[in-house]
């Protein structure tokens, strides 16, 4: 009989130091809330606490706190932690920014408290909150306990001197943060609770983790008072929380060549439906022009770029890229070598381009290819075209030499030229293919779209052909993946040329 599979152990990273005493209290209650009959059944917990210079509530201190948390999360990631526990209300005022950039999910304290209130106090509408002036002014609780379902009520300042009793109880000279767990801080919190009761709240929610250290000294007889630290710990243990979806990231192997990389990025931006900056696709670009020339290796005795391409892809993989784009046609001669060793898929520029052609021109039989001699010799386009029942047609030797001059020549596009001799050279090659009856021509080097635009072009014979830009097609496919809109995968070249 087979043994049942053991459930994987959950690992949690607790960020301490945000207040040290309160963080330790959450740690204790997290262990206490774990249903375990023996030590081995507890979670794998990592409690990370480092003092940092500016622990106040100023804007500067908040920025430092934010960066401290982010750095700690990155350390948790290296240690294989699955989820992050963030026992600090002030830090939840910027949790959206953290979650958008965090490699690990952060368990939201406010969501846990709201879920508890809804379950434990289903008729509660007026929510009394004991929190600092900073959190109150940031409207943190109002973001979660929204109207008309809830109304958030805060204690009123003392009439005599305008003192904020909650902030003073925690942050005052002899407040809870300084280790004073009886006397004046408790009296101030009791006064705040009495004021909330006078405002007829249904339940009181502490919005400072330090209050959990003295919660048992506060009167719960008139209005229920939560232990927010315990509620959060129970929520973490329950696992009954979702994690916000991480932002899709496109990794780009750049520098092959540099101008073509910029062209690809521009086309990603241009092809992304967006009304604001935040609607655009997240790109991670490793601009590495030191990758050895692909053509020199394929047709000559130049160094092999395999390791450089692989190393660049691994950097993108380590940067949490979801897919990798290589805006270089010739580099795809090496994709089959490196893809098996990557965890992230490379979006194959060549196969995507050929799929576009097949979809756009069902009756097409021959396709012209303008590319580096390395791309042609490698046969990568020929293989992709033949897989779709298409025949590759390339310029003859003399015109292929002119194509190479347009790309690599002293006045070629790789040297920074986009007008003059290089355009004349490539136009001659296009005209030759059109004269041979070719109706669709692939601009199969990512520098060529810098010289000729995708769309219709008329040859000297009067015939018209369609120029297909693999850079634009690749950009569209990456946008489709990033948006989760796979209907955008296949777009006819007629619509591409008019875009």
Q: Could you explain the architecture of this structure?
A:
- Belongs to the aspartate/glutamate racemases family.
- One of its GO terms (molecular function) is amino-acid racemase activity.
- It is a single chain.
- With 499 residues, the protein is an alpha/beta fold.
- The chain has four domains: 11-107, Rossmann fold (3-Layer(aba) Sandwich); 109-238, 3-Layer(aba) Sandwich (Rossmann fold), CATH 3.40.50.1860; 249-349 and 478-482, Rossmann fold, CATH 3.40.50.1860; 350-474, 3-Layer(aba) Sandwich (Rossmann fold).
- It is 41% helix and 13% strand.
- It is built from 20 helices and 16 strands.
- The strands form four sheets. A five-stranded mixed sheet has the order 13-12-14-16-15. A four-stranded parallel sheet has the order 2-1-3-4. A four-stranded parallel sheet has the order 9-8-10-11, sandwiched between helices.
Question: Keywords, please?
Answer:
Rossmann fold; alpha/beta; 499 residues; amino-acid racemase activity; elongated; Aspartate racemase; 16 strands
Can you tell me the overall shape? elongated
CATH architecture of the largest domain: 3-Layer(aba) Sandwich
CATH T-level topology of the largest domain: Rossmann fold
Uncertain ranges:
1-8, 487-499
- Number of structural domains: 4
Sketch the major β-sheet: 5 strands, mixed
Query: What is Rg?
Result: 31 Å
CATH class of the largest domain: Alpha Beta
Trace the largest sheet across and list its strands.
13-12-14-16-15
Strands, total number: 16
InterPro entries: Asp/Glu/hydantoin_racemase, Asp/Glu_race, Asp/Glu_racemase_AS_1, Asp/Glu_racemase_AS_2, Asp_race
Pfam family, one: Asp_Glu_race
Protein name: Aspartate racemase
Family: Belongs to the aspartate/glutamate racemases family.
